[in-house]
Design a protein that fits this description.
The chain is an alpha/beta fold. The chain is built from 16 helices and 15 strands. The strands form 3 sheets. Strands 4-10-9-8-7-5-6 form a 7-stranded mixed sheet, sandwiched between helices. Helix 4 (about 65-75) packs antiparallel against helix 13 (about 325-340) and helix 5 (about 90-100) packs parallel to helix 13. The chain is globular.
Length: about 450
């Protein structure tokens, strides 16, 4: 029988990423019909708090007229423009200047793409390009971290440190290495201080580099705060010590700011929150508040100079995307950055983020909760089978998925992620009163899950 409802048509025709496809055939989708502020409404008119900003990205909510108008105006003026072979357009030039001016560390140039995966894939290629220009063509290997997430392309999924992103896709590639996740709560040894934990991770990285040979390693990829991998916040001295190792071995540091950038952590950049000083920065998501698909790689001067040298030698810089530097996407991103500044969004996130984390900490005594952590408006609640031993549940993801299910029934959309963690990343415009609503709905969901778990 031919599908007739939107629900049936979705099951019949749409493939859903990061989804149990067999389960989807049974349950089907939640179909979003419209958005307003921090809320979305489904096709039946049910209202939900979008507690994840979609995919960590709708930072200004779902009804920001200024972004809509920016897109419409640019559509009427120049709906498409490209940046290949000496071509450009005014919004792309202006956005490049803006990003360089607001970078957390000195940067020189900007290269645009359409997604975070594309940005990180570009950064991998540029790390290789750089080392070729410097006379080190054997520096090919790339270090990611266990639980790190950098995208779903062949290269970026390889650098990602999540097994389900590799299994049966013939990944990761053999030039990818993985080192420790800086998750103190979960991975510290008994009695190990944060300092000792960091020193052990640094020692393990040194050993990895020695085993593989520094002359074979091009770059180290890291999110300032791991997102999909469990909202993992590194100890304060983690990045300074890691960076010292990388610098000594001429290994580039790439900051994956796709989730953390543009105010999410209570600073404009996650790098400022955790003390990163990268050679390249990748960003996307909140760059346009998710209203248009755009990403960027910010390049330091040494990397750009190497690119110039190689392109002169080869005859051209052989890389690019059709929609990189799209004028409509750039115009919307410019307007989003203007809104962040005019409304002092970073300060707002600091204020409401402090309140949010304080309220979330109230769940620390709940029998299912092992750890509550976060920065700004990026937070996670890690669930455990046993609070004393931190033992995980017998079936991974089963309990945290149930919390998300009960939360959805209460009108709150949150996401179960790696490590039995419930993630929160509401739009940056959220108010304290709306945070209280999230807490109330989360409390109901946790209690309902506990009753379900106890049987």
């Amino acid at each position: 029988m031919k599908p007739t409802t939107q629900h049936e048509k979705d099951i019949a025709y749409v493939v859903h990423p990061q989804t149990n496809l067999g389960q989807h055939e049974k349950n089907g989708p939640l179909i979003a019909s419209r958005g307003e502020g921090i809320y979305i409404y489904d096709d039946a008119g049910t209202k939900y708090i979008e507690g994840m900003s979609g995919l960590w990205c709708a930072s200004l909510g779902f009804s920001e007229e200024r972004l809509i108008n920016a897109a419409a105006e640019q559509m009427r003026t120049l709906p498409y423009g490209q940046t290949f072979a000496h071509r450009s357009n005014e919004p792309t030039i202006a956005l490049s200047e803006k990003l360089i001016g607001m970078s957390p560390v000195p940067m020189s140039k900007v290269l645009f793409q359409s997604s975070g995966s594309e940005a990180n894939d570009t950064a991998i290629k540029l790390a290789w390009y750089y080392h070729h220009a410097k006379g080190n063509p054997d520096k090919k290997k790339v270090i990611g971290r266990v639980r790190g997430y950098h995208g779903t392309g062949l290269a970026t999924a390889s650098v990602t440190g999540l097994p389900h992103m590799h299994r049966d896709f013939n990944l990761p590639f053999d030039w990818v290495l993985h080192t420790d996740c800086p998750h103190y709560y979960r991975l510290a040894k008994e009695g190990e201080s944060e300092t000792d934990f960091v020193n052990r991770l640094v020692s393990n990285l040194e050993q990895l580099i020695e085993d593989e040979g520094a002359d074979n390693i091009a770059a180290f990829f890291a999110e300032p705060i791991l997102g999909v991998g469990g909202v993992v916040i590194p100890p304060a001295d983690y990045f300074p010590k890691i960076q010292a190792v990388l610098k000594r071995h001429d290994i580039l540091l790439v900051a994956d700011e796709v989730i953390c950038g543009f105010g999410r952590t209570g600073e404009m950049w996650g790098s400022l929150t955790v003390g990163m000083k990268p050679d390249m920065i990748t960003c996307a998501k909140a760059l346009s508040a998710a209203y248009m698909p755009i990403s960027a790689v910010l390049l330091s001067q040494p990397i750009y100079e190497a690119m110039v040298s190689e392109s002169d030698k080869i005859g051209t810089f052989g890389h690019g995307y059709t929609y990189g530097g799209h004028p409509v996407c750039a115009a919307v991103a410019l307007e989003a950055l203007a809104i962040y500044e005019e409304r002092n969004i970073v300060q707002h996130v600091r204020e409401v983020g402090h309140y949010f984390l304080k309220r979330l900490a109230e769940f620390s005594d709940h029998p299912l909760v092992g750890d509550v952590r976060g920065a700004g408006l990026l937070a996670g609640i890690e669930l455990v089978k046993d609070k004393t031993t931190k033992a995980p549940f017998d079936k991974p993801q089963s309990v945290v998925a149930k919390v998300a299910e009960f939360a959805e029934q209460e009108g709150l959309l949150v996401r179960p992620i790696a490590g039995e963690t419930l993630a929160f990343a509401p739009p940056l415009i959220i108010t304290k009163a709306e945070i209280d609503m999230i807490i109330e709905k989360t409390a109901i969901a946790l209690d309902a899950t506990y009753r379900w778990y106890r049987g």
